[in-house]
Amino acid sequence: MKNFCRLVLFVFLVSSGIAQAQNDYPKNYFRNPLNIPMQLAANFGAVRANHFHMGLDLRTNSQENLPVVASADGYVSRVKIERYGFGNAVYISHPNGYTTVYAHLNKYFDELDEYVKERQYKEEKWEQDIAFSPGQFPVKKGQLIALSGNTGGSAGPHLHFEIRDTKTEECINPLLFGFVIPDSVSPVISGLYWYDRRFSTYEPGANSISVKKAGSVYTTNVVRVNSPVISFGIKAVDKANKGFNLGIYQAELLMDGQLIYRFSIDKISYDDTRYQNGCIDYTKFIRDKMSIQHLSALPGMQLQGYSQPGLSGIINLQDEQLHNIEIVLKDVNGNIGRLTTKVQLNKTEAGISSTGKTVKAGETKTITTENSEITFDKNSVYDAVNFNLYEKPEAAENAISNTIFLHNTYVPVHDNYTLKIRPDRKLTKEEKNKVVMLLDYGSDKEAVKVTWDDDRAEGKFKRLGNVRLILDTSLPLVITEWKNESEINTASLRLKGYTEVGDIVSFRAELDGKWVRFARSKDYFIYVFDERCPKGSGKHTLNVTTVNTAGNINTQTLIFYR
User: Fold this and answer.
1) pTM > 0.85: yes or no
2) Phi first, then psi: what are they for 255, rounded to 5°?
3) How many CB atoms lie within 10 A of CB 388?
4) Residues of the chain with CATH 2.70.70.10
5) How far apart are CA 312 and CA 334, in angstroms?
6) What is the mean pLDDT of residues 230-234?
7) 477-561 architecture in CATH?
8) CA 135, 141, 146, 150: dihedral to nearest 10 degrees?
9) pLDDT of the residue at 351
């Protein structure tokens, strides 16, 4: 009876907590930024690569150029244009202390679009981050502000929509503002995992437990563990009546009726969103494309406001009795997914112990090999890592060092680490200026221009993998989609950038001797023909100058007719 009363009180407090969180934000103040019903492709807090999703992804029926309107009265306070990330974005500040953000846009409303274009031509720079005063571009609720698109780091047409606290710039879960999105579907649980917390969650890692549904509740067989100190992780998704798999809003873990861990995703800042990697089983996410959220706090996870203070989620089993476990998942609308099971300690077995190369949260650490040195600061890792650093000869023709193997790609890093590598031969001053450090982390590569500490090259990264020094004397290129000196009748001119190593870090195009505005979309540079190159204007000369990561410069002359 005592445990039952405790559970009833807990459910009441949690329910009140959700209601209180929702009541803290104005309802019906912001409208749907599209003129079609809101349907979610992703919600706030969904797990992404190295960050939580920071807003709502609103479906646009796989179309571009749908009208995007202001969600409330206010003024355009900022416009941002970038290659990745948001692509083209508009920020509107409102008198109630919030700012709404609209991203991946194709075009701004005419007056704003013309202002931005003039600014780009004046500064001879496509990427922009422009701040505005309240009187420049005031807007009314429902006023057209842009056309939807697929720019920046977007994988398909949609509108990314955020609500931020104007002063702190924290992103707040937009679903707490009362938008009408029908949802009567409970979170779906598909897996339960336990971790031996005498050691790191990375070693030996997750122990899988099969989940089955029994009526309205999920359950498992008795979870028998061989460690007296454990934690749990849950594999689950939220669902709306229409839409994709969504992220979990709130989770609670109880043992024998007592709350031992709780997280909810109400607000997050961009400065802290990388802490997501300490809230999930990163190894499973990268290796198996599986999203498992920890129901416990890792030592280096410092995301403020995510989990309830004083509740670690660490379970200390003092006996070999059966203990009741309950996991309750909730969405913003109050739909509940519930899992009940029992846990029991069996005979304790030994686990993996620390080594002299263990990197721990809250501590700095330097590890060396004959030709390399890696240094982690105190905020580099979320949990202990028995770090494996070694080197092997590299056969690539342009490599000038051994390949340095940094543990593996399945362990996350929060802050940049510093890596120093000694080249395999003495370099001239000119050669040193063309050296890049190339990181291969499996799914992609990243190159940085090195600095020099005496005879060692130095670089910084936020991912692990294998690294080598490259002497890069190659020239960057742009590749045309037309034959030189041919006539172009399309609405735009496209060039594809190419580098042997790294990226194109600088691009400049001059049309008949004057700078011309090329937008950048991933590896492409695109010029939409405007009044500077009208149809029927005849022969044109385009000089394109590119610079790669190593600093090599190339100028190409292209001729076309219009």
Assistant:
1) yes
2) -125, 125
3) 14
4) 40-177
5) 24
6) 98
7) Sandwich (2.60)
8) 130
9) 66
Quote the Cα angle for 487-490-496, to 5°. 90
Q: Please check the confidence at residue 304 and state whether its pLDDT lies above 50.
A: yes
Contact criterion met (CB below 8 Å) for 88 and 81: yes
The string of DSSP letters for 107-160 reads EE-HHHHHHHHHHHHHHT-S-EEEE--TTTSEE-TT-EEEE-B--SS-SSSEEE
Per-residue confidence (pLDDT) for residue 350, from 0 to 100: 74
Rounded percentage of the chain residues whose pLDDT exceeds 90: 90
How far apart (Å, rounded) are the C-alpha atoms in residues 130 and 111? Answer: 15
The Cα–Cα gap between 477 and 475 comes to 6
pLDDT at 46 over 90: yes
Distance from the Cα of residue 139 to its chain's centroid? 30
Query: Residues spanned by CATH 2.60.220.30 within the chain?
Result: 358-471
Query: Among 2.60.220.30, 3.40.640.10, 3.30.70.360, 3.40.390.10, what is the CATH number of 358-471?
Result: 2.60.220.30
Q: In CATH, what is the architecture of 188-345?
A: Sandwich (2.60)
Average pLDDT over residues 510-514: 97
* Distance from C-alpha of 48 to C-alpha of 234, rounded to nearest angstrom: 16
239-248, 278-287, 343-352, 387-396 — most confident range: 278-287
From the CB of residue 494, how many other CB atoms can be counted at a distance below 10 Å? 17
Sheet holding 107-108, edge to edge: 67-69, 144-147, 107-108
Q: How confident is the model at residue 394 (pLDDT cuts 50, 70, 90)?
A: confident
Mean pLDDT of 312-335: 96
pLDDT score of 14: 40
Give the tens place of pLDDT for each residue, 79-110: 999 999 999 999 999 999 999 999 999 999 99
40-177 CATH fold: Glucose Permease (Domain IIA) (2.70.70)
Q: Which long-range contacts (CB under 8 A, 24 or more apart) does 291-294 make?
A: 291/47, 291/235, 291/237, 292/191, 292/193, 292/206, 292/233, 292/234, 292/235, 293/47, 293/233, 293/234, 293/235, 293/236, 293/248, 293/251, 293/263, 294/195, 294/201, 294/231, 294/232, 294/233
pLDDT band, residue 16 (cuts 50/70/90): very low
Asked if residues 40 and 246 have their Cβ atoms less than 8 Å apart, the reply is yes
Confidence at residue 7, expressed as pLDDT on a 0 to 100 scale? 40
Nearest Cα neighbor of 377 from 443, 456, 300 is 300
Tell me, rounded to whole angstroms, the distance of Cα 84 from its chain centroid.
Answer: 12
β-pair partners for 403: 392
